[in-house]
Amino acid sequence: MTAETQRKAPVRPLLLAKDHAVLILLAAVIVWLSLASPAFFTSANILNILNQNAPLAIIAAAGTFVIVSGNFDLSTASIFAVASVCAAWLAVETGNPLLALVAAPVVGMVLGALNGLVVASLRIHSFLATLASSMVYSALAVLITGGALITVDVDGFADFGRGSFLGVFIPVWVLAAVVAALWFLLSGTVFGRHVFATGGNAEAAELSGIRADRVKVLVFVLSGLAAGIAAAIAVSRISSGQPQAGAGMELQAIAAIILGGTSIHGGVGAVWRSVAGVFLIALVGNGFDIMNVNPQLKDLVTGLIILAAVALAAVGRRAR
């Protein structure tokens, strides 16, 4: 072994910590909660956690594309709200639950595409563009409903959000399918490589023949589509649409994505890490509920976990 190899060898554990910080923390939290409460590590509780957090995990999985491409999407909660109220309104007006639930992802795609076109064509920073669009979309949700709750009493409408198949909630199956598709799209396709290249250096990507503007539009379309799918699950689950639905969801999704190790500067990230980040935060909340711990401490613990993950990632970067 050369002197250079000897100097490099000790940093491998640090690199491992950087690449798998969220899994290390997730495993630690699972072990801790399993020892603290026998009610935690049961199939019923685990499935309930997956079911309750499926909408947020779907949004975070697609949001990974946006951040890896070097952008931000602050409008996902507002898109979620518009898609929710549109689905509820259509269900009430037409009495067709399938049409209403399919409309939610379509609405999400259209609004996401508008975001992408504004960012790509007008050259406005995505942070400002989606901050503005979130206000517009929120107002649109209020206009559609008049600020009131739309209650849905249509046969079959609640099946998508509350039903189960082979003993597993339907939203969990949807989550698995969406995550698998997005995981493959980002890590195993030419489009995924273009997303990484655009986030790493948009100008260099353009020079290499990648249409960075088209990539930007498409990642926002994916983000909007995911918000629409999440809205379809949520509105079906509670059988009502409201303009305030999903408030704060965009920040929760971004927190989970960053917690998972995706770089806010773009060019680095993975779908599975973002989903792990969602469930790491969810497990902390679930653990507090099971153990009847003061809920005011939840944000403190969650914040410390995020700091720990960021610190592990930073140590890993320095080790390189």
TrEMBL record:
GO molecular function, one term: transmembrane transporter activity
Gene Ontology terms: cellular component: plasma membrane
Membrane topology category: Multi-pass membrane protein
Protein keywords: Cell membrane, Membrane, Transmembrane, Transmembrane helix
Residue stretches spanning the membrane: 21-40, 46-67, 74-92, 98-120, 127-152, 164-186, 217-239, 271-288, 300-316
Subcellular location: Cell membrane
Pfam families tied to this protein: BPD_transp_2
InterPro entries, per the entry: ABC_transp_permease (IPR001851)
Full protein name: ABC transporter permease
